[in-house]
Specification:
Layout: E1 4-10, E2 15-17, H1 36-44, H2 51-57, E3 66-72, H3 73-81, E4 92-96, E5 109-111, H4 115-124, E6 129-134, H5 136-141, E7 148-153, E8 162-163, E9 175-181, E10 187-192
Parallel strand pairs: 1-6, 1-7, 3-4, 3-6, 4-5
Antiparallel strand pairs: 2-8, 7-10, 9-10
């Protein structure tokens, strides 16, 4: 069965975006974009590179881990604000929203369906993994379905913003299964859902 991976950048204090929900990679410099962790992304996680980055780097690597990406309306609108209607044309792309009525990305699948049921159905299909790229509200709705949580922990404290999981929820345990520390001060922390706990 395919697994759902929430692969996301976070500040030390647990925020994936600023209070306005804007582009965390934008001019405010919320996240670090120099150093060895970027090489690790290119080598180990090329699937998460958006189309503009692939174009700028002159690369189009094959999908290694994911063939599907999920995001909420707010995350999708960050790309739209930058003029990108489909940041991931190399992946089957779902946007979950109850308020958007149309999607300018012709290949993007806009859905108001229950995210949990959608993910369960996607997991039953053949293919590579499913990447939950954001945001915090969708991650919270899908928390019980997340099999793997990979946090790109950046050496930044924000103080306020959009948390990794936005909304109320109960305690849930994950096991730390891998740690990568880079010269940039960024750490990649991989957590998996315990099997029998």
């Amino acid at each position: 069965m395919r697994k759902l991976t929430y692969f996301v950048a976070s500040t030390i204090d647990g925020f994936v975006a600023g209070p306005d929900g804007g582009d965390p990679s934008g001019p405010d410099g919320l996240f670090v974009f120099e150093g060895g962790h970027m090489n690790a992304i290119l080598e180990d996680w090329p699937d998460i590179l958006p189309a503009p980055a692939r174009e700028a780097l002159g690369i189009d690597p094959p999908n290694r881990r994911f063939d599907t990406v999920l995001e909420g309306r707010a995350s999708y609108e960050v790309g739209l604000a930058a003029g990108v209607s489909d940041a991931y044309p190399h992946l089957e792309h779902y946007v979950f929203s109850r308020t958007l009525t149309k999607c300018p990305g012709p290949r993007v699948k806009l859905t108001a369906d229950d995210p949990v049921e959608t993910v369960r159905e996607l997991k039953r299909r053949d293919g590579l993994g499913i990447w939950l790229c954001g945001g915090g509200t969708l991650a919270n709705a899908l928390r019980a379905e997340i099999d793997e949580l990979v946090v790109k922990l950046h050496p930044v404290v924000l103080g306020n913003g959009i948390p990794l999981f936005r909304g109320e929820f109960g305690r849930q345990r994950f096991d730390l299964t891998d740690t990568q520390i880079y010269d940039s001060g960024v750490m990649h922390l991989t957590y998996t859902k315990p099997r029998n706990r």
